[in-house]
Amino acid sequence: MPETKDIGLRGVAVADTKISAVDGIKGKLIYRGYDIETLAKNSTYEETVYLMLYETLPTKKELDIFKETLASERQLPAGIIRHMKKRKKTAHTMDVLQSIIPMLADFDDTARVGTKAAQIKTSIRLVAKMATVVAYWDRIKKNLDIIKPDETLGTSANFLYMLSGEIPDMQTAKDFDTCFILHAEHSFNASTFVARIVASARAHMYACIAAALGALSGELHGGANAQVMKMLFEIDRLDRVEKWINSKLDAGEMIMGMGHAVYKTWDPRARILSGISEKLAERTGNTKWFDLSRKIENVTRAEFKKRKGKEIYPNVDFYSPSIYYIMGIDPDLFTPLFAISRISGWCAHIIEEKFAEAQPKAAIYRPEAEYVGRYCGLEGCKYVPLEERD
Q1: How far is CA 136 from CA 126, 143, 264, in A?
Q2: What structural domains and CATH numbers belong to the chain?
Q3: Which of 204, 260, 267, 349 is catalytic?
Q4: Which of 5, 142, 194, 332 is the most buried (most CB within 10 A)?
């Protein structure tokens, strides 16, 4: 009997990490020792980024300096902006991100400096500029004037300002900031693993991030949140939920945003996002999308248990779309929003991959594969000259 393989490396530990821990049984997510629920309630995205890069929470003075540094690095080089304005307006934002990020290396004199301090400096520049690329491109493709970053605003509030030209109210900015914290890191997910693979080859930070963006763009990873919003649009009404869900399950299809590869209970991020979505809906008077999401969750869970005898729970992608949409953000920006927040985790993993004491310096990832193709014996298949082939 052939040996069973761990498809997708599920359950296979490939490296040590000090950055985050995911407990799928208990539904826990830890960032460098701190529970995600504690950070979501008490922290800010900037403080979380500091924790990712420097491995500890900052003092007030350290955080103030860090926030000023991040804000000062937001603007894009003029050459990058000119290039973006020449880009075809129909280009997807994720494709623009994946092409623009490597170009930023041309303007970073520390990009190829192989010290940890230099890598942290590059990480700060990337965290600061990622949101600007997304906001600028959204304005450019809509034939609107770009809105330069406001250095007096935090990362989340500034992004919303660059999109719309309006400074968000404090509660909206806080909710959005919490979303960024929740998406900042999640151990060895597909995009993070890709970033670490490229980092193991000793490529520079920009190349690693570009590779991660490619993985995130897929609909089974970062693209899932946009697919959830597409589902909400398609169902549209509460009285259509049961029929729609049953037809999908009858056809053996997935319900996007439901279920997770690791969590066997509630994804702790989804629980927090559900609360934000509900309160935002109540505050704005726009309850349609939360109500629809909640009913889809309830029907899917009930049907899944009836059909398979197992529980299924929402993941991080299920309730975030209703939040972003009520905030006036277009669905095609949902995956880029994921990238804006996850950049901090990616950078931390790239640095860890390159500088962790336990990692051998030449430990480039090189897994094995089982060849199951044509086999003609040890001598190989007989080569027949082209003119003799029938």
Answers
A1: 15, 11, 39
A2: 7-219+333-355 (1.10.580.10), 224-326 (1.10.230.10)
A3: 260
A4: 194
